[in-house]
Amino acid sequence: MKNTFYLKTDARDQMIDITSMIEEWIQSIGVDDGILVVSSLHTTAGITVNENADPDVKTDMLMRLDEVYPWAHPKDRHAEGNTAAHLKTSTVGHSQTLIISNGRLVLGTWQGVYFCEFDGPRNRKFVVAVHA
Fold first, then answer.
1. Could you say which of 13, 21, 53, 105 has the lowest number of CB atoms within 10 Å?
2. What family, per the record (predicted)?
3. What are the structural domains of the chain?
């Protein structure tokens, strides 16, 4: 089973908590146990699992990624000018594999699943697939 989700981002760099979207879909299809893969369909947007209690974690992560991969580097050759976004996505990764148990994602107390925008604002999509 799989589903495509659509998002509209509103900033160049942004982390959007998609945990509840995924869990609502899991419950709607009635899966109790299985493996779930969530994947961004973009080369400048990724998926990660990280803390969802303190919003400063997202702020700090985006700030530090920007320090490592500044937006305009004089040696960048990519014609679109978004090399930093491609590097950030490769660092974060485009997908995550998660466990479903008792109809819920198996996540730690403070963990959430995030769609990471690195070249927005844009219309985006990600796919979730379950093997039960």
1. 53
2. Belongs to the UPF0047 family.
3. 12-131 (2.60.120.460)
